[in-house]
Amino acid sequence: MIPVPYRSIINGGLKPGKSFTVRGVIPHNPHRIFFNLRHIFGIAFHYNVRFDENKVVCNSWDGQWGPEEFPEGMPFKACQPFEINISCSDLSFNVFVNGQHVCSYKHRFLPLNGIDVFEVTGDLQIDHVDA
Question: In b/e form, how buried is each residue of 41-63, taking b as 16+ CB within 10 angstroms?
């Protein structure tokens, strides 16, 4: 098991083609989970799983939150294993949960190589990270 919160440095900063994969289990009665790609001034991509509201919210922080985006559906379930993959393309972050594409989030922060931290926190057990 990998301790939560999890945080890793992206050596040289983020580049298109880079992806992050996390495998684990959602516990009984979860509240929220956060997957963040950070830069020195804030958060370039915030993927916020809100079990308490049965929705996912995507956003960015640069001193204040930007407009929220709401992908359809809730791809995570309590007491179930999961795999999430967040990949970076030239134009967006693409999120896959259990092999299914669940959202694309257009870059709001550039340059991408300024994004240098990947972090995961909240109500989850992490068994594997490829970052």
Answer: ebbbbbbbbbbeeeebbbbbbee
* Number of residues in the chain: 131
Task: Give residue 76's pLDDT.
Answer: 98
**CA-to-CA distance for 108 and 44, rounded, in angstroms?**
7
- The position carrying tokens 């804030």 is 42
HSE, side-chain direction, 13 A CA sphere, residue 35: 24
Domains and CATH numbers, the chain: 6-130 (2.60.120.200)
Looking up tokens 């999120």, which residue turns up?
A: 95
Global pTM value: 0.97
Average pLDDT, the chain: 98
